[in-house]
Amino acid sequence: MPSVTETPGVREEKQDQLTPLYNVVLLDDDEHTYEYVVEMLQKLFAFSEADAFSHAVEVDSTGRTLVLTCELAQAEFGRDQIHAYGADWRMPQSKGSMSAIVEPAGN
Fold first, then answer.
1. Which DSSP string do the residues of 19-30 spell out, in sequence order?
2. Is 27:83 a contact under the CB 8 Å cutoff?
3. Torsion sign, CA atoms 76, 73, 21, 48
4. Given 3-state DSSP classes, what are the helix, strand and coil percentages for the chain, each rounded to the nearest 5?
5. What is the Cα–Cα distance from 83 to 75, expressed in whole angstroms?
6. Domain spans of the chain?
7. For 22-104, CATH number?
8. pTM over 0.85
9. Exposed, middle or buried by CB within 10 Å (0-12, 13-18, 19+), for 12?
10. Which is higher by pLDDT, 38 or 2?
């Protein structure tokens, strides 16, 4: 039978710490088409066409849609990808990318 060696008076505790999670939230505007939103979400986040379209409907009807929940660095990267995606060529009044924010997921 193997022996277990413990140091008297020393107790090692391992506690799993939960990493805080953050949401990437896409915000609505009037300068981007549904096609733009679907295309962007498919390219940046590998959404299926159906899921991307559902998010396009949600952002249009509620003003926002949650596209990703992850750790802070990845959430900031996702937000930055949205901000860098560019204008919607289908709409002459589109001057740039859509807006997105990072917020705590409330875990």
1. PP-EEEEEE--S
2. no
3. positive
4. 35, 20, 45
5. 12
6. 22-104
7. 3.30.1390.10
8. no
9. exposed
10. 38
Dist CA 35 CA 56 (whole Å): 8
DSSP structure class, residue 105? -
Helix 49-62 vs helix 34-45: angle between axes, to the nearest 10 degrees?
130
Say which residue the tokens 């926002």 belong to. Answer: 64
Kindly give, in sequence order, each residue whose CB lies less than 8 Å from that of residue 35, ignoring residues fewer than 6 positions away.
Answer: 90
102 token code pair:
């990072």
Instruction: Kindly tell me the burial class for residue 19, based on how many C-beta atoms sit within 10 Å of its own C-beta (0-12, 13-18, 19 or more).
Output: exposed
Give the pLDDT confidence of 42-85 residue by residue, as tens digits: 999 999 999 999 999 999 999 999 999 999 999 999 999 999 99
H/E element, 72:
helix 72-83
Q: Partners of 66 in the beta sheet?
A: 25
Short-list 81, 75, 74, 80, CA closest to 102: 75
